[in-house]
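User: I'll paste a sequence; please echo it back and then give the predicted structure.

Assistant: Echoing your sequence first, then the prediction.
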Amino acid sequence: MVQLGSVAGAIIAMKSVDFFGRLRALQVVCIIWLIGVSIQVSSHSVGQLFAGRFIEGLAIGQTTSIGPVYMSEVAPSPIRGMANCIFAGAVYLGIMLGYFSNYGSALHIPAMLSDGSVNDTQWRVTFCSKFIMAGFIFITSFFWCVESPRWLLKHDKSQEAIDKLSKLRNLPTDHPYIVAEISDINEQVMAEKEAARSSSLISNFKQIFTVKSIAYRLIIIGGGSQVLGQWSGANAVTIYASELFSLVGVTGIDKLKMSAVLGVVKFFSAYFAAFFLIDILGRKRSLYIGICGQMLCLLYYAIFLNLVPEAAEGVAINDHAKRASTGALAAIFLSGTFWTIGFNSIQYLIGNEIFPLGIRSFAQSIIMVLHFANQYGNSKAMPKLMLAMHSFGAFYFFVGVLCVALVWAFFLPELKGRSLESIEEVFTLPWYDLRRCNKLVPDHSQIHKVKYTNSRRNTGFENIHFDLEQNKHSVEMIENSEATNTNNDARRSSGEEDDEKKGQ
């Protein structure tokens, strides 16, 4: 029910994220989330529980549009990938806490009461843990978060946008970096207003499906990331982790313990990818590493189930197969690691980079509808898939999907370090040239003409003028800090002393 509610939530986000703004939409979602959890915790019937789960899904579906869009719009371009991967890693923070909550409740709260009745406290306690995160996000959003400057400029709130961007960058409002970034955003906002006078749902749908470049981005890039990612086997491993552990000989409460450990592995590997890979290696290299690693791990797991059929049948594994079963156990953990490095790193990021500002949140909402629809379909299909194709056949299928994903990834553009406003120019290229976009369409945004330097000679900001004809750039110092002025005064004094010596 949560996944069905999430599909509906993603549809609602098509309008709510632009109507309320990124920050207010997040706060409204937290209230919906708290209402859904309250209904679940107080449930006395299955119908009430399902209703609470569906309402919770309405909130969750919107967060996957709000969070990535907001992070993309407020983060500086050099760390935009990291910021979005922090959001993706937070998903696994929730999964990890959920696994440990289940394990802790099963370990310390008896499932049955002394009179033989079911102990509802065991599952109610796990549900109560959701209050902590929803409440924390709601309260801190009033103190730590500011509205997206790009959304403010789109809605003609220029001065507020400058103030918010200044606060985000921790720079004065008249700073060259702030001026350059506002200039880039304004340029795109004005261009979009010239191209489209209306921002209704109908006009957005028309733009997305009639403009070939945008349709390609939505269907092939955004849709492909969700379909291939969700059917690559990672979702099946997350949802049915305890059942998969039982296939390699893990039994009893140890299955919940191993599931919790899997949550820890995914959480830390997601943040490793965020801080050390996505903005350093780039989107495509991280994706290649993730897909190849995940494919090898799932291939090993499939071969193990194929060659050791007694494991899938629940029969005790012979001594000669125990080492292989240990390898299969490791393959599950490693597949989760490579998933977070690969598909998980880009499934929330890519949709927020490739679309223009006017339809960014709308298009991201459509992509998230595909995300949750495929997630729901995958979770329902997995048990039947394992029965129809045997356990090993299902994982051979996932390996095949990952092979297709490698070909798909080859044609993706590398958007590392580009400003959001410059990405639109990338998609003027034919689809087969997108992978060479950085050579064919360099990023000449105003923001890249301002570069911070900190050396013994110069401390300040440089204004870099790029000469397209000569393919060279000249550098002009912008004296906008006390340190810069001090250094310049020192150089002048030194020059005057030299002149005096020469005169003598």
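Residues 452-492, 500-504 have pLDDT under 50 and may be disordered. Residues 210-412 form a domain with the Growth Hormone; Chain: A; fold (CATH 1.20.1250.20).
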